[in-house]
Amino acid sequence: MEALGAPRSPPPATAATSAVLDDDDLLGEILLRVTFPTSLVRTALVCKSWLRLASDPVFLRRFRDLHPPSFLGFYVKTGGTKPPRFVPMPQPPELA
Q1: Would you say residue 61 lies in a domain?
Q2: Is 95 a member of any domain?
Q3: Residue 93 domain-assigned (yes or no)
Q4: Nearest alpha carbon to residue 72 among 49, 53, 91
């Protein structure tokens, strides 16, 4: 039995999670795997260190290289005096 006031060691899962979240290189690799830019914005709101990491120009360049912009749609001109009509492409629910 532990004495009162003696520090307890964290459970193994908590220690492992803390080791990952405190390692900027490893956390950066995890955040690079986030599929949508909107999810990256949400992760940046978690805390200041995640915001710093997600807004780093080097990180953002790597993110853009892995996740190029998606094609949102195109304009169709049918002739006459009608203005062009925008035809949206199907998007994942995250971007809809």
Answers
A1: yes
A2: no
A3: no
A4: 91
Q: What are phi and psi of 73, to 5 degrees?
A: 165, -170
Count structural domains, the chain.
1
pLDDT by position in tens, the chain (length 96): 555 666 776 666 777 777 767 788 888 888 888 888 888 888 889 888 889 999 999 999 999 999 888 788 889 988 788 889 999 888 777 765
Residue 1, in any domain of the structure: no
DSSP string for residues in the chain: -PPTTPPPPPPHHHHHHHHHHT-HHHHHHHHHT---HHHHHHHHTS-HHHHHHHT-HHHHHHHHHHSPPP--EEEE--STTPPPEEEEPP--TTT-
